[in-house]
Amino acid sequence: MSNMTDILTNPDRFFAELSQRDVNLRTPFVIVLVSAILGVIYVMVAFRVMTSSLPEEIAVISSAIATISAISNLITPFISWVLCAAAFYAVSMLFKGEGSFSRVFEFVGYGFIPSIIASVVGLATITIMTPAAGFPLDNPELLQQTMMQHLSSSGPAMVVSTIIQILLVLWIVVIWVLGVKHARNLGTGHAIITVLAVPAAFFLLWCILLICIIAAA
Q1: What's the rounded Cα separation, in Å, for the pair 132 and 127?
Q2: Residue 93, in any domain of the structure
Q3: Residue 88: which domain range?
Q4: Per-residue b/e over 14-26, b at no fewer than 16 CB within 10 Å?
Q5: Which of 8, 131, 141, 195 has the most CB within a 10 Å radius?
Q6: Is the model's pTM score more than 0.85?
Q7: Does 1 map to a domain?
Q8: What pLDDT does residue 145 have?
Q9: How confident is the model at residue 5 (pLDDT cuts 50, 70, 90)?
Q10: Count H helices, E strands: the chain?
Q11: Does the keyword Cytoplasm apply (predicted)?
């Protein structure tokens, strides 16, 4: 039986052992659900921090935006789970991958574990970077001075947070590569291409769209 700690220390062995068992979507579903809930909490806390010093009229509008963003953050992880699994399954067909979609779907769900950590890091960063007294919005000069001082003091925390977030994204990629490798019985190279082909395709489409917009302007 695979050990859950292996997903953190040895994901290759984790997926190799898990691939010998029947597909079980319960654990990855809980992982994605926790990721979604923490994402909602992060958005609500972030909006609360940003609107704490705003006038009441603007705060009401921001509250509505926060609610919409929270709902979006609750749904988006599940949509991403389905779309990523479908994309990985489709691309891996080019390499004659073997294995069911449900297995790919299961293994991709485990890739959301770093997202849980990312939300926790984000919440910690917001807590560190939030000034206790808020920003003096009624005095533009004092506001600018306060913001500069605050950014200067919280700069190291922001840098550390950014580095951690980048490492967590790389961790997601590693988990997905190894997950797809065992779910579709691919070589490591083909699994890497399968996973990286998705963001590469989106980037290419974005560049084409940007070029079209510039050409039409």
Answers
A1: 10
A2: yes
A3: 6-216
A4: bbeebbeeebeee
A5: 195
A6: no
A7: no
A8: 56
A9: confident
A10: 8, 0
A11: no
